[in-house]
Amino acid sequence: MITTLTPNPCIDKTVAVEKFDIYKMNRVRVLRTDACGKGINVSLALNGLGVETMTIGFDFTDGHASPLKQSMAAHNIPYEFIDVPGQLRVCTKIFDESLKHTIEVNEYGAPVSAEAGEKLLRLVVDIAKKSDFITLSGSLPKGLDSDFYFRCAQAVKQEAPNCKVVVDAEKQLLLKALEASPFFIKPNIHEFQGTFNCQINNIEELDKAAQDIIRRYSLGLICISMGADGAYIGSLEGAYTCNAVQVDVRSIQGAGDSMVAGICTAVQRSLPLPDILRYGVTASGASISREGSQMCTLEDFQALLTQDINIRKVR
Q1: Residue in 101, 107, 95 with CA at minimum distance from that of residue 28
Q2: Helix, strand, or coil here: 227?
Q3: Which of 124, 138, 193, 223 has the most CB atoms in a 10 Å sphere around its CB?
Q4: In this predicted model, what pLDDT tens digit does every residue of 200-256 receive, in sequence order?
Q5: 106 and 170 in contact (C-beta within 8 Å)?
Q6: Minimal CA–CA distance to 2: which of 165, 177, 182, 234?
């Protein structure tokens, strides 16, 4: 089973505009409103691929019915959310159809108590004991220290050593979590350069920088998404790069989360490194061809899996 953690869930409201203009009024059409979050997106993608998954995290119900629980029940995804005070934050995604680009306006969300954080940490460890993977994804709500993912990863490695830890976060959250040596991380190229303070000009420089990170933190894998330029995956044993899957882009929301789902699926199936990259890129492509925060389906994934994405060995 692949378990996903979402400490800071949200409602994604996706709207579309023909061409976004910061100086004029923009008329939009609402595409979708989805209760989700990065870890939840990974579970939705895994569920779409037919992979057993469970999602856990906080749920900000504020005494009302939970759209998170309703969404998970509708998709038949097992969940265990810890209810905390406050409302789900709203993240507005403005899709510029002319540029195929998404502008994100994300709320911070309600704070949580230190006690709630400790309860969630205990839940992470308990569920990890029954899981092959656990993904730690996205931002943290106020009230949780920036070492929360580090503490989760460290506790899982100590108490559930057979569970592989995946971290998909940015900046200080990622840097601190790396001290616990998770199995793999998946930044995009901009996050990679910003987090590790490097300037990448070509694939050879990217591979060298990735190798340094793998060795420094004893990682199993690094996958770096590069948008329309494809993706890179590396381990100590080798590295590959590929083109992006060619699809009609309807939304880029959840592309990285679907990539995490594809990679976890391939690793769980003991596939070789080139196929791990193929699964990740294909799952991502199958998601961006759908509107809003809808994740990939098995039908779309299988249809795209045969597409030639020119997987090339870097070393």
Answers
A1: 95
A2: helix
A3: 124
A4: 999 999 999 999 999 999 999 999 999 889 999 999 999 999 998 887 766 666 788
A5: no
A6: 165
Shortest CA distance to 225 belongs to which of 190, 254, 199?
Answer: 190
| pLDDT tens digits for range 294-308 | 788 888 899 889 899
Compute, in degrees rounded to 10, the torsion defined by CA atoms 49, 101, 223, 292: -20
Domain segments of the chain: what residues? Answer: 2-313
Tokens (6 digits) for 70: 């309703």
Question: What CATH architecture applies to the domain 2-313?
Answer: 3-Layer(aba) Sandwich (3.40)
- Asked whether the beta carbons of 137 and 6 are under 8 A apart, the reply is yes
Q: Please give the Cα distance from 177 to 152 (Å, whole number).
A: 8
**Nearest Cα residue to 10 out of 80, 77, 75, 57:** 57
What are the tokens at 230?
Answer: 């494809």
* Dihedral over alpha carbons 277, 278, 281, 287 (to 10 degrees): -140
Beta-bridge partner residues of 92: 13, 105
Counts of helices then strands in the chain (DSSP H, E): 10, 14
DSSP 63: T
- Plot region of 192 (φ>0 → left; ψ -120 to 50 → alpha; else → beta): alpha
Q: In what order do the strands lie in the sheet with 312-313?
A: 79-84, 53-60, 2-6, 133-137, 164-168, 184-185, 221-225, 231-234, 239-242, 312-313
Give the Cα separation of 55 and 124 in Å (integer).
10
Instruction: Give residue 252's identity as a one-letter amino acid code.
Output: I
Per the DSSP assignment, residues forming a β-bridge with 134 are 3, 165
Beta-carbon contacts of 29 under 8 Å, excluding residues fewer than 6 positions away, are: 15, 16
Express each pLDDT in 83-139 by its tens digit: 999 989 988 888 888 887 778 888 888 999 999 999 999 999 999 999 999 999 999
170 and 138 in contact (C-beta within 8 Å)? no
> Which stretches within the chain are classed as H helix?
38-48, 67-74, 114-128, 148-159, 171-178, 189-196, 203-217, 255-268, 273-288, 298-305
